[in-house]
Amino acid sequence: MKIGVHPMNLHLRLAEHWPGLFEGLSPAFVSYAEGRDTGALIARGEIDIGGTGSTPPLISQSGGLPVTYVAASAPRPANGALLVAPRSTVTGIADLRGRKVAMIDGSFHTYLLARTLEQAGMQLADVTRVEMSPARSRAALIAGEVDVWVAMAPQIDLAIAAGEARLLTLCGSTIPNRSVFWTLGTAGLPDAAIGGFVQGLVRLGREVSADPDRAAHILAGPRAEAATFAQWSKVVAGRDWTIFPADATLIAEQQAEADTLFQHGDFAQALTISTFIPAPDAA
Q1: Mean pLDDT for the chain?
Q2: What's the N-to-C CA distance of the chain in angstroms?
Q3: List of residues 6+ apart from 201 with CB closer than 8 A
Q4: DSSP 61-72
Q5: d(CA 182, CA 110)
Q6: Which residues of 210-224 are buried (b: 16+ CB within 10 A; e: fewer)?
């Protein structure tokens, strides 16, 4: 099984360095830079399965790919926020109209921004989305090139602690903000193999919770300074690492997101989200 790994999916980053999770699957971890490429990589046969935020599989389905959901993480209320400069005149969501927003468009950032704007009666079209990496977004906010940055952990706390940013709104319950794990119907993975993959992720979630220092060391890297390790320790401790087999709840959440992005004009046609493999033996 060729398992795709990109920097933003922490479960799979850990899985690559957590031996024994996928016994019997002959796992090969394939690194790539951008989670939004997951669907295309599966379609080309370069990977068999991957994990992303909630939005990339919807974009893949809107492009005609037969997405199949297999698992999801617990919600991640602390892994997403809208940040502004400390002295910004943006003090509330209503002030976002006409502003430039640095983000990874087509990731969960898009859904978080859409639902946040709805709280003030606005649409995605009421702001200017600026595609930027997290590092570039941080620099652009400091330089005043953008008004808002859709940020993730650990950058949220780092930027605020450095005096570079101020919290406008945290993800919280605005969106579920799960990691989702998915494949394509055309990938040809047997249900038993998918079940083994999910079972390995469930085990990983339990073992990370039992040994958070091990996870923090992996994520921080072998040459990390003490401050970097401390920051990753905070990220690990602040997250529920539980993995759930795909179910009707996940499908309903994905449908709600698809409907929202269609209403905001990001999808040309409405989507129907229905295909998942529950992997009942994974619990």
Answers
A1: 96
A2: 21
A3: 11, 15, 21, 71, 181, 243, 282
A4: HHTT--EEEEEE
A5: 19
A6: eebeebbbbbbeeee
Fold agreement (2-74+178-282, 81-170): yes
- Assigned CATH for 81-170: 3.40.190.10
What integer pLDDT is reported at residue 278 of this predicted model? 82
Kindly report the CATH number that applies to the domain delimited by 2-74+178-282.
Answer: 3.40.190.10
What six digits make up the tokens of 43? 């379609």
* Residues forming beta bridges with residue 244, ordered by sequence position: 72
Query: Which H or E run includes 100?
Result: strand 100-103
Residue 104 has pLDDT above 70, yes or no: yes
Q: Is the pTM of this model over 0.85?
A: yes
Give me the residue spans of the domains in the chain.
2-74+178-282, 81-170
Tokens 């919600």 correspond to 75
Q: What is the DSSP letter of 187?
A: G
189/156 Cα distance (integer angstroms): 37
Of 111, 80, 82, the C-alpha closest to 95 is 82
| C-alpha angle 265-270-275 in degrees, rounded to nearest 5 | 130
